[in-house]
């Protein structure tokens, strides 16, 4: 495998490895990608994965009913740790979403053609991750029937939410992010939905995909407007990649708690978000390309590029961890210094060192090309990165709260089975949605992949004729 | 290839585009009007067990509010009078009136009359009559012109925004203490000057903190 691997991931910039492998032409690409949706039955692995993940999703809803019936006392939150798993999970899931927007918007503006193989699935992953994220702040407020209080609207109480609070900025940041991501994802899918409509064998599929394709005919005018709109949305989504997690980090940074009150938080959170997001994209796509036979479109080169981004952002995250320690020492503040010593050597040191191992040590393995090109090893490392990034949020949220200014109120936070079940359940929701997406929507941006092929080059045919002459 | 959808479906985007804004505006207007306590609560006029007329007693006969609602100046609640207060007069006045049969029965059996509460604020909102009365807020500011009402009804929305309006700027509702129960009182021309003086003398600084009412 290794010789082949080195060929398709050539590092020589004058001879880029092709983005579509195999003997594909335009028609066979459509056949392969639409075939995933059109086959009467998905692969057995899909059934197994969907059964497991939907059971976990069910667990989430059962625990949600329990939470609603009894109240948030069923969680492990107490004094002084008032923000437990709910906020940890929220920040984790919002962070996961960032890879999708980065791939779809920033890599598009930078003309990174390799994004085309993975952008659709990554955008879908973004939507599902943000759905998981949005559940947690809505239920952590305790009075779960009143989340609309977060929205500023004229009301009979004569009151507005606190506009000076980053918790309100969060509502806008994540809300905007979700809306723009959803529109971007859906709009990009319209030409492919039209393909599914035109190929549909049954009336039901024809009508459903027909409605979703909103009358796309593929005329020149349609394509012209589509590409303009795509560019505009990419420009709109680009600042969101940076702003959303910056605002999320301000939930912490604007407070006065040691360990939260630092100016490094916004860039550090954004790097961490992209880091975890790419790890999740790889976690999802490595099995998916195997099960659905998409290895020709999600090639080793795509995966290797993602490994490089994980390496780069993971190193930024590691740098941020060390800067936090430097600043604690340099500040001369005893409480600040205590906080970081306590984080790394105190009651939560197990979580801290899991985080450091998974986020700082593990991605360094990607310096080695042989590891970047070993798909299943990369998959395992990406899962470790996911674990590490969840623990990063756990360490930040819990260790700072548990040992705050008042030693008399210190307490050790222990999650209950409801906390753990809802965390596992949110993964169930996420994977269930992603598996449904794989089964019912085009997983690869067909039209965009075709554009990166040599056949799409206007000189392709004349070049071919020239060879024959 | 046959068309999947009939031709009229081409109009859907146009219709949706044109209808969204008016529909949203209509929805907001309907909720704003029909959901407001001005619509849902003002004018609440339940049937009381005794056909008692505030218009007759407070208006034509000129009874002071505090004759019946005796605790209003010292207690959080204004108190609904016990049957004995009715009988102070009706032991001799209109002794045989049919309308007063339930009052006599209540007196004889000792079972209080089950008056229906009209001005009902939620349990999570704290309200104290005595503070407002001793600050010089007139009864009519919250209850309307009771002496014109044959049957009492809710005159004001009693919504939180309505409370806050006065808490943020009470000046137009402050009176000389002797005028608190006067239903006909209107602010004089120099009300602002009076209010400034009254606020200094009576130390009136209404708070709009959450904990002022939600304790």
What does this structure look like?
- The complex is a heterodimer of chains A (469) and B (215).
- In chain A, 70% of the residues lie in helices and 0% in strands.
- By secondary structure, chain A is mainly alpha-helical.
- The model of chain A has no long low-confidence stretch (mean pLDDT 91).
- In chain A, α4 crosses α9 (265-291) and α10 (300-331) crosses α11 (334-345).
- Chain A contains 17 helices and no strands.
- Chain A has one domain (2-468).
- By secondary structure, chain B is an all-alpha fold.
- Chain B folds into two domains: 11-40; 54-80 and 115-213, no CATH class.
- The N and C termini of chain B lie far apart (71 Å).
- The mean pLDDT of chain B is 92.
- Chains A and B meet through α7 of A and α9 of B.
Helices and strands in order:
The complex is a heterodimer of chains A (469) and B (215).
Chain A: H1 2-8, H2 26-38, H3 44-70, H4 85-109, H5 119-140, H6 166-199, H7 203-212, H8 220-253, H9 265-291, H10 300-331, H11 334-345, H12 349-361, H13 369-372, H14 375-402, H15 417-440, H16 446-451, H17 460-468
Chain B: H1 12-34, H2 37-40, H3 54-60, H4 65-68, H5 83-90, H6 101-109, H7 129-135, H8 139-143, H9 160-168, H10 191-202, H11 210-213
Helix pairs in contact in B: 5-6
């Amino acid at each position: 495998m290794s010789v082949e691997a080195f060929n398709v991931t050539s590092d020589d910039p004058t001879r880029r490895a092709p983005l579509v492998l195999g003997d594909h032409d335009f028609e066979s690409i459509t056949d392969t990608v639409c075939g995933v949706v059109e086959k009467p039955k998905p692969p057995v692995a899909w059934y197994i994965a969907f059964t497991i993940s939907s059971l976990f999703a069910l667990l989430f809803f059962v625990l949600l009913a329990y939470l609603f019936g009894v109240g948030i006392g069923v969680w492990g939150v107490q004094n002084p740790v008032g923000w437990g798993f709910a906020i940890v999970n929220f920040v984790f899931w919002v962070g996961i979403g960032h890879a999708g927007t980065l791939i779809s918007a920033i890599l598009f503006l930078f003309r990174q053609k390799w994004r085309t193989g993975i952008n659709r699935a990554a955008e879908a992953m973004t939507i599902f991750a943000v759905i998981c994220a949005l559940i947690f702040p809505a239920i952590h407020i305790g009075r779960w029937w009143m989340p609309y209080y977060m929205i500023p609207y004229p009301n009979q109480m004569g009151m507005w939410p606190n506009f000076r609070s980053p918790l309100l900025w969060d509502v806008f940041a994540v809300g905007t992010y979700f809306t723009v991501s959803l529109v971007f994802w859906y709009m990009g899918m319209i030409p492919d939905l039209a393909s599914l409509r035109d190929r549909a064998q049954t009336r039901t599929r024809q009508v459903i995909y027909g409605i979703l394709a909103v009358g796309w005919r593929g005329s020149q005018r349609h394509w012209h407007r589509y590409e303009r709109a795509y560019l505009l949305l990419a420009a709109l989504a680009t600042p969101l990649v940076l702003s959303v997690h910056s605002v999320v980090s301000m939930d912490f940074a604007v407070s006065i708690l040691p360990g939260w009150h630092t100016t490094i938080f916004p860039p550090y959170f954004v790097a961490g978000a992209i880091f975890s997001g790419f790890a999740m994209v790889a976690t999802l796509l490595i099995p998916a390309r195997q099960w659905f036979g998409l290895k020709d479109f999600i090639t080793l080169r795509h995966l290797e590029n993602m490994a490089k981004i994980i390496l780069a952002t993971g190193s930024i995250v590691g740098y941020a961890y060390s800067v936090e320690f430097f600043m604690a020492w340099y500040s001369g503040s005893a409480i600040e210094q205590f906080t970081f010593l306590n984080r790394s050597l105190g009651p939560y040191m197990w979580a801290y060192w899991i985080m450091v191992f998974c986020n700082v040590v593990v991605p360094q393995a990607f310096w080695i090309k042989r590891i970047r090109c070993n798909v299943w090893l990369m998959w395992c490392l990406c899962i470790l990165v996911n674990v590490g990034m969840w623990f990063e949020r756990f360490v930040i949220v819990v260790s700072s709260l548990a040992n705050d200014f008042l030693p008399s109120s210190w307490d050790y936070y222990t999650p209950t089975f409801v906390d753990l079940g809802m965390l596992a359940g949110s993964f169930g929701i996420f994977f269930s949605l992603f598996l449904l997406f794989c089964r019912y929507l085009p997983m690869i941006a067909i039209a965009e992949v075709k554009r990166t092929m040599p056949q799409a080059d206007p000189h392709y045919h004349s070049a071919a004729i020239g060879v024959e002459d | 290839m046959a068309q999947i959808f009939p031709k009229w479906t081409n109009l859907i985007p146009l219709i949706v585009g044109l209808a969204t804004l008016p529909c949203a505006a209509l929805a907001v207007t309907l909720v704003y009007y029909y959901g407001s306590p001005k619509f849902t609560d003002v004018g609440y006029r339940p049937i009381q067990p005794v056909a008692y007329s505030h218009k007759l007693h407070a208006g034509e006969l000129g009874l002071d509010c505090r004759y019946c609602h005796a605790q209003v100046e010292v207690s959080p609640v204004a108190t609904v009078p016990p049957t004995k207060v009715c009988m102070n007069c009706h032991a001799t006045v209109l002794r045989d009136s049919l309308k007063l049969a339930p009052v006599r029965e209540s007196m004889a059996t000792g079972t209080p009359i089950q008056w229906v509460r009209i001005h009902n604020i939620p349990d999570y909102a704290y309200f104290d009559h005595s503070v407002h009365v001793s600050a010089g807020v007139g009864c009519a500011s919250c209850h309307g012109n009771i002496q014109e009402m044959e049957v009492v009804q809710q005159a004001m929305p009693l919504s939180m925004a309505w409370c806050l309006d006065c808490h943020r700027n009470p000046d137009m509702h402050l009176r000389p203490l002797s005028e608190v129960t006067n239903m006909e009182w209107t602010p004089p021309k120099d009300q602002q000057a009076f209010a400034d003086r009254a606020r200094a003398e009576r130390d009136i600084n209404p708070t709009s903190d959450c904990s002022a009412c939600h304790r």
